Amino acid sequence: MLSIHADGAEARAAFGTRHVCIPESRIPIPESRFPPPDPRYHNRMHASFDDRHVHKKRFGQHFLHDAGLLRRIVQAIAPQPGEHVVEIGPGDGALTIPLLRALGRLTVVELDRDLIPRLRAAAEGVGELDIVHADVLGVDLTALAAGRPLRVVGNLPYNISSPILFHCLDHLDAIVDMHFMLQKEVVERMAAAPGSKVYGRLSVMLQLACRVEPLLDVPPGAFRPPPKVDSAVVRLRPRPRDERPRADAAAVARVVKAAFGQRRKTLANALRDVVDADRIAAAGIDPRARAEQLAPADFVALAAAAPPPG
Fold this sequence. Notes:
Blueprint: E1 2-6, H1 39-52, E2 63-64, H2 67-77, E3 84-88, H3 96-103, E4 105-110, H4 116-123, E5 128-133, H5 141-145, E6 150-155, H6 161-169, E7 175-183, H7 184-191, H8 201-209, E8 210-218, E9 223-224, E10 231-238, H9 249-261, H10 267-270, H11 277-282, H12 296-305
């Protein structure tokens, strides 16, 4: 059984990259009971797509086709029958079908209307696939969860990966975990520790909200067409509510943006329009320090010390 929801939107609005400490690591993915993708499905789908589907650059389409990597990703997700899982950007269904086979029912959010008939055909006889035809940035994930714990997965378009990550953070209370394929450079920034050259806004904001676990690297040749960059799979586990900052989220974001906007300057200089040196010192932080030296919790303290804007 398959159902489709459509909102008619075919274009994404332009989003600026938004930049939230767990040391970067790679954890082994154990063998599990999940079977490898059916080679008959794999060969049939990709032959069909090579013949008929034109990959659309504006949607950032790079479809994973490496059966071994697909198997490891499914093992890392470890889907269980009856779980409520949403896949963002299913593409040609390479990950969709093994997930659907394990779950019995799966919801996918896909913007490209040309892919919907192919997904429908691939899911025939496998399970119940609910297709939401929409830009995920306009999808209310909390409403989609409908009171059930939600797991989110996806091979995210690299050109809007940061807006999608922050969109998921807006619905964190509804989400159990997230498994995403992203540009490797982005995953490194997400997991970076203080003092790292790539530690920045994204590191701080994500780590305040989630535990970040890089899982495995994916080379360009695993995709069709191959991207020009390496990719990686990352797991995000939302922190319990009592571990998340109690400070106003907008205030934290304002401090983080200002601090890393001039990362070579001291906090006293970078934050002079947000919080003065005396307040920085009163929060227990050296005004001579630089943003990349602070732990995520330090930015929460600075936000609490900052006066209201205006």
